[in-house]
Amino acid sequence: MFGHPIKHSASPVMQNAGIELLKLDWRYLACDVAPEQLKSAIDGAKAMKFVGLNLTVPHKLLAVPMVDAFDESAAIWGAVNTIRFEMRVGGDWKPLSQVGPDCEGEVRAHGFNTDADAIARALHEDLGLELEGSRVLLLGAGGAGRVAALKLATSNVGALWIVNRTQEKAEALAAEIRQRYPSVTVSEGYPTDDVDLILNSTSLGLREDDASPIDETKFPLKRSKRVYDMIYRPAMTPLLKRAHSAGCRTANGMGMLLYQGAKALEIWSGQTAPITAMKEALRKNLYGG
Ligand code: ATR
User: Fold this and answer.
1) Fewest Cβ atoms closer than 10 Å to its Cβ: which of 180, 196, 256, 288?
2) Residues 243, 138 share a domain
3) Pocket test for ligand 1, best of 113, 202, 230 (most atoms within 8 A of CB)
4) Distance between CA atoms of residues 60 and 146, nearest Å
5) Are residues 138 and 184 in the same domain?
């Protein structure tokens, strides 16, 4: 995995637990790669015949011109969080996990994105939410908010409201959705009616003294059935605590981290990820016990 910074990443522990259960002779490592070195680092991994890579902040957008082929999941969001290295064998490109370390041939970097599907899966598994027809208030219009909004739009949510500190970013995101998915009802600002989900994609809540990501005088939490916070450390953000007290069903972002990682392991290995072992390793790493 390449990121910058990367020190506190929980992905190595989660992925190595999955790798062990699948009995693969692999190791998952976290490397701090400065943005200006990203191209060299990807080319180096390709030359060394790595099976694949994960990319995290700030590399997901930067990597787009650096991969040789796009899966639809990466093309649709314009961001890459998973690379699978593949070798040309005859007329086909085969994952390096299938050709073995001694084979020689042209290698390409195939870009995927597993973040968006992970959002939908986490909302379904952790909060029992079917996105189709749901009414969603999205807090934040940064990188994570954009992927979430586009995933909600492609999942045919019933209505979407976007609130962001910098209003122009919320407007730009709403305009992009209107243009790409005209059948989705999208607005900027707070809803006037109740919603099925409030989804926090802002970074507010990471620190104890952060302000709230939502103006509860404009939209009280009890008017949402569910609240999902993409933050997973701390386990209970102030938003989730208040939402719990208000009677909402709540979940933090651990599920998103788990499902994006599980999907990446499946892309590299071609096998079903051992989700229970990965989840347990992740939970222990994040929260101890
Ligand atoms: P990420 O890739 O994690 O989404 P990002 O693109 O920097 O990171 O987005 C951070 C989000 O948190 C944005 O919605 C940001 O609001 P702005 O677009 O107005 O910057 C929001 N955010 C961060 N700090 C904030 C603060 N102090 N108050 C309100 N919103 C904040």
Assistant:
1) 288
2) yes
3) 202
4) 13
5) yes
Instruction: Give me the residues paired with residue 249 across strands.
Output: 226
Ligand 1 lined by 143 (C-beta under 6 Å) = yes
Helix (H, G, I), strand (E, B) or coil at 178: helix
DSSP 20: H
What domain range includes position 145? 117-252
CB-hemisphere CA count at 13 Å for 253? 22
From 46, 60, 151, 225, the catalytic residue: 60
Strand order in the sheet with 159-163: 186-188, 159-163, 135-139, 195-200, 224-229, 249-252
The model's pLDDT over 148-195, given as tens digits with 9 standing for 90+, comes to 999 999 999 999 999 999 999 999 999 999 999 999 999 999 999 999
Same domain? For 163 and 236 the reply is: yes
Q: Name the nearest CA neighbour of 223 among 250, 252, 193.
A: 193
164 and 228 inside one domain? yes
Whether pLDDT at 282 is above 80: yes
Into how many domains does the chain fold? 2
Beta strands 92-95 and 107-112: pairing type?
A: unpaired
Q: Does residue 72 share a domain with residue 174?
A: no
Beta bridge partners of 84: 52, 110
